[in-house]
Write a structure and sequence with these properties.
alpha/beta; Metallo-beta-lactamase, Chain A; Rossmann fold; 2 domains; 7-stranded mixed β-sheet; 7-stranded parallel β-sheet; 14 helices; 19% strand; globular; binds zinc ion; Metallo-B-lactamas
């Protein structure tokens, strides 16, 4: 018997944690964090208890209460931990946090499967972001060892770490009784993969997050064509935008950008998602056409460098962009009173590495030649403009989703104040989604033609029922069987 249990992404967007179980094999598809649900309890000011994070998340039902799944160093803080892992693998669809964010809690001895692109992104996040992002290297917490100097005395062992068991794939692979066929698909991040999983009771399709309007839309259609050949008995499909009819394509967005930027005489300031390299390419291209270079953050540059090293193409080259060197906490960058090696100590080790190998640019340099650049900043980094002073004729382009909750609204209000301060208000909103709209979503399902459909990653699962007969509305934590 084969069964599937959904521990998230039911009536919510993201937080995918899908357990597929056979007679002897148990595999999780994704292990993500749902931002909405997390935000019900936590904020930058209300944080989980460091050593008891796992307990807090299980108690609050942010994580399923399962044995033999979680890291022993965290689990042993509050309960006995199983000696052996009781799961055979975790398979990732793509490296967005709502699909990968809770992987750091999974035991290192449960094999982890991800595409090369996904793994490269996770590597970059792990090395450059603050927060609990131990995707590949797990630093063992709370370990003690006998002191080398004094027998019988114990000290904390802070350097102990283990490497997660990782497998990347180029073609089909087996985990126990299941065979996984991976297909690269189009989404707003590198490495996105959909799967057909062959089980003893038939094939199961899992779309992950998918769209048909980015630069790699043809990959998504290729997946649809291949998946239909397996005559699937069940399709687990994302449905984020089931209620939205239309969509702007990435290439239309790029054309719009080119037109808008042509009209701007001062500095172009822009915000777009940190790891959306499809969007970055649109900005690079729109810049080139208008004699401007795109200036990105050190974090983005680091990711480009990792992707380049891992030979993941279809992203801009590091030498096509400039890298912004902001004045950091000491405020001494570009100050001749301080030797350069002292100035550089203000940057973290990973930042220094990327600064050395890229073409950096400072606020002073941008201020002198504002019509030559597109400066990409996070909405929270508009403060850097205080060192640039955008001249009259400058504009801000916001290429992010509209605020969807209260917290985002509040942040948006503050951002608007900053923009008004710099005379960059009103701004230009220009975005295209990472998710397929209704028309292509229905076309995908019709072509794959599964016996049953389980819509997830949506707040509008019931909308599927007007379009299809065999829709299963499932409940979180309730097992469904494939027969
Ligand atoms: Zn998602
Ligand atoms: Zn996603």
């Amino acid at each position: 018997m084969v069964s599937i249990t959904f521990y998230g992404a039911i009536n919510e967007i993201g937080g995918n944690k899908i357990l597929i179980e056979g007679t002897e094999t148990r595999v999780f598809l994704d292990f993500g964090l749902c931002f909405n649900r997390y935000g019900n309890y936590f904020s930058p000011y209300i944080t989980p208890r460091q050593g008891l994070k796992l307990k807090d998340f299980i108690e609050l039902k942010l994580l399923p209460d399962l044995e033999g799944l979680y890291r022993q160093d965290f689990e042993q803080r509050f309960r006995e931990s199983s000696k052996e892992p009781l799961f055979d693998g975790v398979v990732l669809s793509h490296p967005h946090i709502d699909h990968a964010g809770f992987i750091p809690f999974i035991r290192s001895d449960i094999p982890f499967y991800a595409s090369e692109g996904s793994l490269a992104i996770l590597k970059a996040i792990e090395q450059t972001s603050q927060g609990f992002y131990e995707f590949l290297k797990l630093k063992e917490k709370f370990k003690i060892r006998e002191s080398k100097r004094e027998k019988g005395k114990y000290v904390r062992d802070k350097d102990s770490s283990v490497q997660r068991e990782i497998t990347t794939f180029k073609s089909s692979f087996k985990i126990g009784e299941f065979t996984f066929h991976p297909f690269s698909v189009d989404h707003s991040i590198v490495g996105a993969t959909a799967y057909v999983i062959e089980t003893s009771e038939g094939a199961v399709v899992y779309t992950g997050d998918i769209r048909f309007h980015g630069r790699k839309y043809d990959l998504s259609w290729k997946f649809v064509e291949e998946a239909s050949k397996y005559d699937p008995i069940l399709m687990i499909t994302e449905g984020t935008r089931i209620h939205e009819q239309t969509t702007v394509t990435e290439l239309q967005l790029e054309d719009n950008l080119k037109r808008i930027i042509k009209e701007i005489s001062g500095l172009v300031v822009a915000s777009f998602p940190v790891r959306d390299f499809d969007r970055m390419q649109s900005f690079v291209n729109a810049g080139k056409e208008n004699g401007r270079e795109l200036v990105i953050s050190t974090r983005q540059a680091f990711a480009l460098d990792v992707l380049e090293k891992e030979k993941i193409d279809d992203v801009p080259n590091l030498d096509e962009v400039r890298v912004f060197l902001p004045s950091k906490s000491w405020g001494i960058y570009d100050n001749p009173n301080y030797p350069i090696e002292i100035q550089m100590q203000d940057y973290s080790t990973w930042e220094r590495k990327i600064i050395e190998k890229s073409s950096t640019i400072t606020a002073n340099e941008i201020r002198e030649e504002q019509e030559s650049y597109i400066l990409r900043v996070e909405p929270t980094e508009l403060k850097y403009l205080l060192d640039i002073n955008p001249k009259i004729g400058s504009r801000y382009i916001r290429s992010l989703t509209e605020p969807v909750d209260e917290e985002m609204e509040i942040q948006q209000q503050k951002m608007d104040n900053w923009l008004k301060f710099f005379s960059l208000y009103p701004y230009k909103q220009l975005h295209c989604s990472g998710h397929t709209s209704r028309k292509e979503l229905l076309e995908m399902i019709n072509k794959i033609n599964p016996k049953k459909i389980v819509p997830i990653h949506t707040e509008n699962a019931k909308d599927f029922m007007s379009a299809f007969e065999k829709v299963m509305i499932v409940e979180e934590g309730v097992k469904i069987t494939l027969k």
